[in-house]
């Protein structure tokens, strides 16, 4: 009788099993800690919802068009903040990107320092940076520009350094062999290779910064966030509806334009 | 080299690789960008001149945050607020990960073959992603009052948009051959998804969920600034009271938390994918 041949079973490594069960235990412990620790006052929340739902949600869908000029002005200020901030970041990130790229900086210590600075900057949420700068320079758009500039430098520097690490080093070596000096190699060997991608990333970052700068005003750093803050503290949900609508439209347009430009560059 | 008038070598100038048309276009773009920059800096009071004058002042004011009062970090209320931030992110990520499954299936062109449904889902997800998390938090705070619950809801909706988009893109890039083979041998839609799609998507799915968890940690840190629970609330209070060394200690705490979570999540993601 022909016995049914089964494929051989996978060998189970006891170490693997131990690892997996340990991970499962950690995850379970994390969830137990979360659900025991979190303190939600359901009763109060639902009581409030019963009172407020009618007052908030329908009004969000009935935007207050009288505020249109005011909101549009604030949105334009937001775009100014994003533009000034991202351009500053796009320039600031270049030296940091070179520092953090290990084929440009032939020193492992310096590269590590560069990478460390960039990831340290990235770890700060934009809004926290804005809060710091609002305390330092006062509640105005300047604080927003600084927050965007510093916040974006972290990510752009990292992306730049990755682009630099992927350049064709044969060109650089050939130029070196022909006796080109460092500056010549930089201007004729490296920069032409990285310019399109640098630009594309900078434009992409502008897109992200427009989103980020819409909320900076909540902590006083200028732009449309200021109106968001006032609309919510005055419970003016009709105006909030208009603000959200304008943010959605403007952000979508910027995304579209930016994607179109980036497609042409790269 | 001696000058002769026979070879091309001696023409003196090498021709430029760019045509003059490209050059003038580049110049124009450069000019427009520069003009926009000066307009922006003028409108936001951050012209290079003001920057140079303002910087020393800025550093003097930032110095007030130092030295950070690190003792605050072990105070029980701060520890509780930090735990709350992490718990909010965990709950929101879990709920978003569950809710995004149907949404991302509907938003994937190769699964949802109905053009209108797919187009609508895409549009819906794009709109969802343009609403800033803080705005969502403010609306939910307006409805439910201050507390963790509106914060969690805001995080869920915010991360749902990102997660559903990323996962539907993953689904669109799967190998359709096994699914077609299953269809040919008579498998139903659910069977196809479960046996053909899930195994292909699962590693990416877990990696993206972890990535969104990182985003949620950052987001939940700041939600407190508008009263939606977590460490942001404590930070806001300290800054309002002008307790800047305490505030700096909390900012350092946030920094350590974000770096740690990113490190662990990166390690896990490397192991998965």
TrEMBL record, chain A:
Signal peptide: none annotated. Residues 75-258 form the ABC transmembrane type-1 domain. The chain crosses the membrane at residues 21-40, 79-101, 185-204, 210-230, 242-261. Gene3D superfamilies: MetI-like. Pfam families: BPD_transp_1. The keyword Transmembrane applies. It is a multi-pass membrane protein. InterPro entries: MetI-like, MetI-like_sf, PhnE/PtxC. One of its GO terms (cellular component) is plasma membrane. Keywords: Membrane, Transmembrane, Transmembrane helix, Transport. One of its GO terms (molecular function) is ABC-type phosphonate transporter activity. It is found in: Cell envelope; Cell membrane; Membrane. It comes from the Bacteria. The keyword Membrane applies. PANTHER family: ABC TRANSPORTER, PERMEASE PROTEIN CC0363, PUTATIVE-RELATED, PHOSPHONATES TRANSPORT SYSTEM PERMEASE PROTEIN. Belongs to the binding-protein-dependent transport system permease family. This is Alkylphosphonate ABC transporter permease.
């Amino acid at each position: 009788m022909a016995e049914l041949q089964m494929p051989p079973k996978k060998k189970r490594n006891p170490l693997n099993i131990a690892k997996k069960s340990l991970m499962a235990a950690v995850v379970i412990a994390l969830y137990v800690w979360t659900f025991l620790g979190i303190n939600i006052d359901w009763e109060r929340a639902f009581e409030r919802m019963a009172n407020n739902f009618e007052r908030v949600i329908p009004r969000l869908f009935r935007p207050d068009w009288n505020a249109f000029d005011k909101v549009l002005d604030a949105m334009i200020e937001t775009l100014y903040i994003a533009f000034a901030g991202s351009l500053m970041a796009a320039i600031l990130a270049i030296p940091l990107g070179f520092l953090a790229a290990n084929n440009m900086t032939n020193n492992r210590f310096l590269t590590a320092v560069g990478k460390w600075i960039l990831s340290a900057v990235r770890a700060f949420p934009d809004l926290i940076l804005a809060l710091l700068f609002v305390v330092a320079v006062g509640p105005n758009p300047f604080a927003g520009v600084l927050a965007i500039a510093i916040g974006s430098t972290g990510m752009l520097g990292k992306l730049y350094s990755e682009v630099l690490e992927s350049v064709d080093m044969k060109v650089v070596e050939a130029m070196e062999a022909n006796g080109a000096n460092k500056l010549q190699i930089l201007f004729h060997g490296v920069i032409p290779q990285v310019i399109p991608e640098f630009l594309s990333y900078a434009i992409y970052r502008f897109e992200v910064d427009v989103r980020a700068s819409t909320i900076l005003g909540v902590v006083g750093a200028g732009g449309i966030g200021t109106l968001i803050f006032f609309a919510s503290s005055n419970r003016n949900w009709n105006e909030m509806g208009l603000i959200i609508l304008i943010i959605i439209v403007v952000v979508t347009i910027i995304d579209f334009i930016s994607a179109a430009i980036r497609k042409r560059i790269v | 080299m001696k000058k002769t008038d026979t070879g091309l070598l001696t023409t003196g100038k090498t021709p430029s690789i760019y045509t003059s048309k490209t050059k003038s276009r580049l110049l124009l773009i450069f000019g427009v960008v520069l003009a926009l920059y000066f307009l922006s800096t003028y409108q936001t009071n951050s012209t290079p001149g003001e920057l140079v004058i303002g910087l020393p002042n800025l550093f003097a004011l930032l110095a007030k945050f130092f030295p950070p009062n690190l003792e605050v970090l072990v105070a029980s209320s701060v520890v509780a607020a930090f735990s709350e931030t992490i718990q909010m992110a965990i709950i929101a990520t879990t709920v978003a990960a569950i809710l995004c499954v149907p949404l991302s299936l509907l938003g994937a062109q190769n699964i949802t073959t109905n053009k209108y449904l797919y187009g609508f889902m895409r549009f819906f997800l794009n709109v969802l992603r343009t609403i800033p998390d803080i705005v969502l938090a403010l609306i939910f705070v307006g409805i439910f009052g201050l507390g963790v619950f509106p914060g969690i809801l805001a995080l869920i909706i915010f991360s749902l948009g990102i997660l559903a988009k990323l996962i539907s893109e993953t689904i669109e890039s799967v190998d359709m051959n096994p699914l077609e083979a299953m269809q040919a041998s008579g498998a139903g839609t659910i069977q196809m998804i479960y046996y053909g799609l899930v195994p292909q998507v699962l590693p990416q799915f877990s990696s993206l969920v972890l990535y969104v968890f990182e985003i949620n940690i950052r987001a939940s840190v700041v939600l407190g600034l508008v009263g939606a629970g977590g460490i942001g609330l404590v930070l806001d209070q300290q800054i309002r009271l002008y307790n800047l060394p305490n505030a700096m200690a909390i900012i350092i705490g946030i920094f350590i938390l974000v770096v740690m979570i990113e490190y662990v999540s990166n390690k896990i993601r490397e192991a998965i994918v």
